[in-house]
Every structure is written in C-alpha cells, then in structure tokens.
Specification:
165 residues, 43% strand
C-alpha cells in the first residue's frame, strides 16, 4: 500500500555565488586608474557586456579607465558549462527497509548551464595578481536575463571593493 510520494533532490541550479580574494600586501590606496588587457569569452557579444559591467562598478568607486596604461591591468574570462542534477522519487513508502525508501524509485536528470566570470587585477609594475573576483550563476535561455545576472554578480563582486587593510 502506497502511503505517499517522497522526493529526494537538491534545489536545481546554483544561487549566485560570488567570491573575492586579494593580496594583503597590495596597497589599494595607491590605485586609481585601470586599463583592460583582455576579456575572453566564447561569445564576442559578451566581451563588451563584461567590460561595461566592471567599468560601471569601478567608476562608482572613483576609479578611471584609461586606454593603454594605468595603476592596474584588468583581465576577465567568461565561460559556460553544462551541469546535471539527478532527482530521485520514491513511491510506496510502506516503512523503512534495508532496500531503501519504498517499492519503486524513478531517477530523472535535469540539465542546466552554469556561467562563470573571473576578473583579475594585476599591478603592472610588479606583474603580480593583486585581486581576483569570481562569480557563478545559472544561465537562462534569454540573453536579457543573463545580462541582468551579470550586472548583479559584478555589483556583488565589487560591493566591498577596494579591500581594506
């Protein structure tokens, strides 16, 4: 006799996940200008979108973009990958047995895409990495939704920027 249906699964997709790290010996008080070395993505349309999002956040912090030289060199890499999640449903919960939750189990696969953005800041004098931000989020089939996710992720990435000593 079936008492109910139990679903055992994780929540599909990832919430926006943003992390930053920096070189504690870097003096961010002396950095005020920056320039782009490169933005690498598989879709050229996203190169400008990434630059615009990062520019907006840095300029809101008082930094100025320059075309060829500055206190900091920026590089960004955007990528996407397929992710799978397995969801198992158990039917016929007549009680716990060694064999599992019930008489019948059905497993389905959910496919989705994860986008990742990595933004690096280098000191051109020392050629050392001084700051890195990473963001992961599930991607939509609609580019305008992904643009909003990019803007929110970059905003979160630079929320506590520049790092305090």
């Amino acid at each position: 006799m079936s008492i109910g249906l139990l679903a055992v699964s994780c929540c599909i997709g990832m919430a926006r996940e943003v992390h930053t790290d920096h070189d504690p010996s870097a003096n961010f008080e002396r950095y005020h200008t920056y320039y782009w070395a490169k933005v690498q993505t598989s879709n050229p349309l996203w190169q400008q979108r990434i630059q615009d999002a990062v520019d907006k956040e840095l300029q809101s912090k008082g930094w100025r973009r320059q075309e060829s030289s500055g206190d900091i060199v920026l590089a960004a890499v955007g990528s996407a990958r397929n992710q799978q999640e397995y969801q198992t449903f158990y039917k016929g919960l007549g009680g716990w047995r060694w064999g599992g939750f019930g008489d019948e189990a059905t497993t389905t696969v959910q496919n989705y895409r994860i986008g990742t953005l990595v933004v690096d800041m280098y000191d051109p004098q020392t050629k050392r990495l001084v700051w890195r931000g990473t963001a992961d989020d599930t991607l939509s089939d609609k580019p305008e939704n992904n643009e909003k996710k990019l803007d929110k992720s970059v905003e979160k990435m630079f929320k506590d920027f520049p790092p305090k000593k």
